[in-house]
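We now fix the convention by which a protein and its fold are recorded. Here is one such record, which you should read through line by line:

>
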Amino acid sequence: MLMRRSFTLVSFCCLLLATASYGQRSHLEGYLFDAENNLPLSFANVWLKGKQLGAVSDEQGYFRLPIATEDTLVASYIGYETEQIAIALDDLSMLRIYLKPVTRSLDEIEITAGRSLIDASFDDLSASSYELNRNTILTLPSLTGEADFLKTMLLLPGAVKGIEGSSDIFVRGGDADQNLVLFNGATVYNTGHLFGFLSVFNPYATSDATLLTGGFPAHYGGRLSSIIDIKSREPDFQDFVLEGSIGTLASNLAVGVPLIRDKLSVHLAGRRTYADQVVRLFGESLPYYFYDLNAQLDYQINGSLSLQYHFYKGDDDLDYRRNFNNDQTTGTDFLIENNTHTLLLNSAFNNRLISTTKVHFTQFKYNIFSFYQDNRLRVNSDINDFGLQQDVVYTPNENHSFTNGLSVIRHQVIPNFIDSGGEIAELIPSSNGRIRNMVESAIYSSWRFTKARLTTEVGLRLSAAYQKEYLYINPEPRLNVRWKQGASGAFKASYTRMVQYMNRVSSSSFALPTDIWYPVTEQIKPQLSDQVTVGYQHKFVGPGLLAGMDIYYKNMTNQIAFKEGTNLTLNNDFEEALLQGDGNSYGLELLFRKEAGKVGGWLAYTLSWSNRQFDALNNGKPFRARYDRRHNFSLVTNYKPNKRITFSAVWEFISGATFTPVIGYYAVPNAALTGVDLIPQYPDRNSVALNDSHRLDISITLHGRKKADRSWYGEWQLSLYNAYNRATPIAITLNYDEVQGTYFYEQPGLFGALPSLTYRFTYKR
């Protein structure tokens, strides 16, 4: 019956799409383009002069609005000259409007053309959607001067970091593997370089990123907690562009070439650490480096058809050798590799129908080899995803929009393949992990409509996971509602059900190369969550300020945990040790964001609770989640007193993560009755929190002079990470005080104050 109802709703949405009627009034429609490169202008504003009637262009630059008398159409876009066009009722042919940029800045970093982030958040129907662009992250202080989208997301409401240096993100009480990270539509399983200290996303190959923590549209699925959607650079069909940076840890270089003006463009970007090469000049050896490569090809076939190809490859490589006095050698090699490919075909039909076809491939693998004397250990693991997604958006008029689509992904998971020899084989025997193939699919449909101040989007996603042994099918209803209070206020509410069919097995609190992903099985059920969010946003137009508040509650089932004392390191038989239980999280999130004026940035605060309950853990009683951090506060600010200098600062405060301490020992006779064994005693699970932590990062950016006759632009940025030298705890150690005869815990930190110097440059002609 449930399946029948689900398909009935999808069929109903499709029927609405096919039978949508048109109003009796005449309509004006057209496209908005950049006058210099013919690219469509998305989310531009058009309205009838002197009337409260307007529209916003879509991703292809298309707009449509009713017209009853002869009027004057006004078209505007941030960073472009406003155009006014007289409209006659006897000539309502399709318009092609070209807006001219106000200036052609030679500094790619400083380009501000485009919709503001405040407007994007306010106009978004989702209750919890946050956008970051490259301009924002490049001005902020960062570790070793490397701008980082993922690290900046940790400064937004609802997102909490794990251990310092880890690439893990915990969103609204969820676990780290419950975030779907997409790069141009392809899943990225390993998001960190340098053991998680830096993300794999090169800022010179990316343009913007969106963090969704609630109110998910129907075309997103596969994870419970968040969607992190990262897009590559916009193409430049006009100019040759060379840009990059030279920093303390790594260097970046990117080049964009218009192969056929207004038609075909290619963009290449690369990044590599060079510390290993520098120390070699002094006769020393550093056995580690990482690099990543990005390639992008854009072909604008015509005004309504475009083709894009994106490629990413990133490696972390360690080659360690050490010789002892007796000529014995020990060493460790490991290679972590990410690859993604995405092919996109965008097309527009009949000016109201937009189709997007996406083919993507993802590969994540690692290869570890260690040896000492006659002992050896080799471990391999591999994930391969091949997927297809088709979306069709139909907009019959300005008040109705229909989205229909399907998604199919074939997962091939090869768990740890272990080859061992020597004495270590007795501890870690050779084994071949079982190869698992799973097909994850979904069909989805949504209907978005506007009536007066109310905008509603109703959607349904029907997802499934299939292996030879089993089939899971789950409906995922979605609802987003926005009620506007004039032009400056908006109430938003959402309900979302999400289902997750892929999980990560982690052997520690860190995301390690030996962590593996695995699909659901007959024993391991899909994880599910139901989330409700209610919020309000207010936009202060004068000062360019947005204030927002969200309250959320999320219920989770089939959560993952492991039996006490389980050793997951290089263990392929983890199913026997796996437990599934329930969880919930709830909280309050506040955000104040400012863009206009000399001072910009945001203030974010999250108050949250996250709990778990497993029958076989903590005597069946609920307990706090590992990263249930009560308070999370961040202040991000930029101050630009003039065109040549920018001061930036980031201050964050976060409550300590929880853990289960040893509170005592009791002695029992050992099996041979020759002595006693000390048995540790524990309180309730995760009942003690680590110390709160806070940190200040500062930077100053010196901008070069911009002149119309100069093609070269450069700037220097000096950053100080952890300015007042307060280390953030990264571990917990149990020590014994011989004088007092007592045990005590220590929280060793990582990183004192770390300065860095970065030079960025842009050459355009």
Observations:
- The chain has six helices and 50 strands.
